[in-house]
Amino acid sequence: MAAPIEFYFDFSSPYGYVASVKIDAIAAKHGREVLWRPYLLGVPFKKAGIQPLVNVPMKAEYSLRDFARNARFHGVEYKHPTRFPTGTTAAVRAFYWIESTDAARAKAFAQALFRVYFIDDRDISDPETSVAVSATLGFAADTVRAALADDAVKNRTREIVDAAVAKGAFGSPFFFVDGEPFWGSDRLDQIERWIATGGW
Amino acid sequence: MAAPIEFYFDFSSPYGYVASVKIDAIAAKHGREVLWRPYLLGVPFKKAGIQPLVNVPMKAEYSLRDFARNARFHGVEYKHPTRFPTGTTAAVRAFYWIESTDAARAKAFAQALFRVYFIDDRDISDPETSVAVSATLGFAADTVRAALADDAVKNRTREIVDAAVAKGAFGSPFFFVDGEPFWGSDRLDQIERWIATGGW
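ok -> structure tokens follow
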């Protein structure tokens, strides 16, 4: 059985959100699984001296237009969040805590988290948003709050983020397909061909 | 008659090169012309504080891989140039001087210039390369050398570059389709739909 497609993303990334709606179907068409890997884009950005698009003159205005236009092109509902970009540490910790007991519900959490940010415009930097989203998946609020404060959860999150950056991930979405890196939702067509053909 | 698609690019841009091989056919399929507009990416980069991809840690290694892989994906012959990125001022001036007498030959010059850089690995920062390429299109070497030193040619080049940046161009390729900006060779599919449908 081939290894899963590794899908790294930041919860506050519009292109990561669009990719999250698309990648499972692309992989499934070719009999592949996807390993969802939220991470914290601030870590590679700091390491490499990269600024968020909306902090860069000229790119900022273009990107705000492209975020919405690109989502519409792909048929993905999108409302630009009031708080953008935003911190996602609590959301990433919640994801990996849920994943440690139930990978399917972790993916459901990620999908729901993206929707509350990019459709409902809620503040995902607030840990209570992750608590509320987790509750819709059956996790008791106090249990989630305890997990978010748990050093083991924090350490596991940090290890995953650091390993992603060590492997070369610096954007969102960022994929590894059998070790081959692909950056951007605009590489989904190339990812599909890579999966289908083993490279070119 | 609809206005032409404006196609801005830097002669030392791998993604601009790939787009140059693709854009005419996409436009022609929908009865549109393309206005080729070489410009100098250093100008918006300086204005916006943008670094070339190969100067940014992490992005550099990925980009070198993606330049070649993306070209192969699109079926475009590509050899990464020894001198990269490089100055293209002479090439841009030669283009606009040729265009002032013959737009078709200006496009042929641009296509040939891309090939000598991305296939033959020649030094396009050297004005003599533009002189030699122009010679293959029937322009006498001394006439081209005189044009490259002509203040009117320099001024026209500067005006076109400055106008592009004032309109918001900061990358290569960068397109305007009926005023709508698109950045990147990975937006060719969106450009085609925009031309076909008038937007979405």
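Chain A has nine helices and four strands.
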